[in-house]
Design a protein that fits this description.
Elements (H helix, E strand, L loop, with lengths): L1 E5 L3 H12 L3 E5 L3 H8 L10 H10 L3 E4 L2 H5 L4 E4 L15 H13 L4 E5 L7 H12 L5 E5 L9 H6 L4 E4 L3 H10 L1 H5 L4 E4 L1 H32 L3 H9 L20 H14 L5 H24 L8 E5 L14 H11 L3 E5 L4 H7 L3 E3 L3 H5 L4 E4 L11 H7 L4 E4 L6 H6 L3 E3 L4
Parallel strand pairs: 1-2, 1-4, 2-3, 4-5, 5-6, 7-8, 9-10, 9-12, 10-11, 12-13, 13-14
Helix pairs in contact: 1-3, 5-6, 10-12, 10-13, 13-14
The chain binds uridine-5'-diphosphate-xylopyranose.
Amino acid sequence: MKVTMIGSGYVGLVSGACFADFGHDVVCVDKDAAKIAALEAGRIPIFEPGLDQLVASNVAAGRLSFTTDIAAGVSGADAVFIAVGTPSRRGDGHADLSYVYAAAVEIAQAITGFTVIVDKSTVPVGTGDEVERIVREANPDADFAVVSNPEFLREGAAIDDFKRPDRIVIGGDDPRALEVMRQVYRPLYLNRSPIVEMSRRGAELTKYAANAFLAVKITFINEIADLCEKAGADVQEVARGIGLDNRIGAKFLHAGPGYGGSCFPKDTLALLKTSQDYDAPQRIVEAVVAVNDNRKRAMGRKVIAAMGGDVRGKTVAVLGLTFKPNTDDMRDSPAISVIQTLQDAGATVRAYDPEGMEQAKRVLSEVDYCGNAYETMEGADALVIVTEWDAFRALDLERVKGLLSQPILVDLRNIYPRDMVEAAGFAYTGVGR
Ligand code: UDX
């Protein structure tokens, strides 16, 4: 199969490299000439474990290439995946579909022979119909079908998620297109990964419903955590107690500073817009968005309370800036609100993150960025863990105590047992315990 990815960002690059690894002939296209030049030179523009080797080995095997020339990439392709960004539109929260529609026009003009146009970008229900209309209008002779195939990759675990998916969703009803999709995903059909074929609209909505449900789950346990804190219970015990019920499931029940990242915040907002358009209110998701927004600043206030209520002139050491570990992504990271709340209250912030420092510098100013975890603590009045990188799980607490001017640890990810930290002489604050 010849497979083309339009958009060589996170989703396009990971998916393209994995399809090449399946044995397909893959071209990744991007308008950004600097990005394509970097990829051709073997430099991967994002941090994703394992991606550099996967790209290198498939380039070396002649199965993966990069180009800025969309026509060359699309010509002769069996399947063309649209994997461009759909950011929140400034002002109204709707998904901005301009990149998707622009890609549709360019694909239409370059199609040769029967081509499946696969929408992998996260797009509101009905977008497939519009892409179909646009392609037909731009090239009335084109022989094509439009399919929806949402991605469920988690940053930091994307290659594994691609190769060992919980499920693959394919939305469309054209038999020729479905046959091409079965060939494209053949290794996963053969190893009996669950593949769900459904209507195109169903597939489009599945993506939003999945992300919204996960956001609900996180926000639910976060609110239960607040109740545990006040009622004298431990949310980790409660999460385990409910998670062992198969109907609930143990995953995504870690209380913390609120969800962030490139998907949940944007997709929940876009789902609310769609629900308004169709007059089918999603009140649970509305509440989740509001609760999660409030939570991030509330976590800053939690730190201030742990430091005695007044942080003017004090210094706070923050470990972990990215929205979760194993990524350099700062988008909607809770660390941004936590740090800004501390700064607004008059504190100085020192910070360290294993991969996110460059991205953090673009969004957080007046932070003293440090070279490692221990350097961050030197002379600080409290230590706050915002993101649960493995490197922060086994800190030498004696050394930490020696570096801090006061032994205060605020653990917003509950990675330390309270009794151990208290036995080491710290005042400990977790989430919901
Ligand atoms: C998510 C979805 O998981 C993925 O299927 C979809 O394709 C894209 O969006 P991602 O944004 O990479 O993936 O991160 P994820 O691991 O889902 O975490 C999202 C946020 O929720 C992070 O801020 C994380 O810290 C938070 N989270 C997650 C919790 O606070 N508690 C949990 O129990 C789980």
